[in-house]
Every structure is written in C-alpha cells, then in structure tokens.
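Quick start: read one record
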Amino acid sequence: MILIYSEEITSRLDYISKVIFKQILRTEIALTTNPAYFLKSELPKINYSNNKFGDEIYIKPHGLLLKTGVEYVDIKPVKYDNETYFLESSIDSILPFDPFSAAFYLVTRFEEYLETDFDKFGRFQASKSILSKFNLVKKPVVNIWADLIAKEIEKKYPGFLFPKRKFEFISTIDIDNAWAFLHK
C-alpha cells in the first residue's frame, strides 16, 4: 500500500490516484490529510502538498486538482529526460512536472471542455490537443508517468515492488452479427 498525503483530498485527487495506482500500477493506496500520521507511517509514501517535510517522495501540486469546475489552464512545456511534459511542479519535487494533475488533464479530456473551435461536424480537433502540440500523441504518457512514480517509490523503498504488468491481446469476433441476416 502507498500512503499519499495532501493538505486537501479532493474528488479529482482521489480519482487520479486510483487511476495511477490501482488501475495502472495495481497497488492499493490510502489518502490522508493528517501530517502526523503521514510522518509516523512506515508505508511507502508520497507527499503531494505545498509543504515538504523532509526526505520523503515529494511532488508539489500544480493546483489543478484543488480546483472545482472547468476553467482555462495555462499549459507551458516542461522538459524532462528528453521529453516534453506539462503542468510544472517545483525544483524540489521528484519530477519537474505534476504527474497527477497532468494525468487528470489527459484522462478526463479536460481540454475538450474548453475548446470553442470545432470542426464542421462539431468535433474536437485532435490537432489542437496538448498531446499533438508536444508530439506525445503516439505515446502512453499516463502509463509512462505512472512508471516514473513507481521507479521513484522503488528507489526510495527498495523492499516495495509493484506487481509486474503484462500485455495481453484478446482478439474477439462479433459472432451474433455474422448471423444477423439468417432466415431473413
């Protein structure tokens, strides 16, 4: 189990934490707003707040997960490990960008709610997406960010290992459609 401390637990933080840790990394999480409990805990832990306590895994929030509603987010590129990311964090964070806020932005398709320039059929244009602008559209960036967090956790807590994920392709055939015109 991973313990995540935040000054405020919002539905956005709860949601994206579950996506990253439960769905992608396949591990349990607990969220807390109690700094004393966080500091005393022996669990692998992440401090996702504006205050760094000490030598913990620290990610300073960008601020998107603390807001409610849909409003414009100023997206500036952040270079890290020869890639371009966005939603800047701070120098003392383990990553120079906030992977929780950035993942939330992508998974919820946040930018599509803000767009006003649609194609002639009223659709969001993929060419206007942040992934297209930063040349990340063909990469599983949320999974990559989850792996970056996992590597930092395993480095800080060598006894903690995430379950190995494996790719499995299951080909299916819609058989009922093949018989749709039988006896008609």
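The first strand starts at residue 2 and ends at 5.
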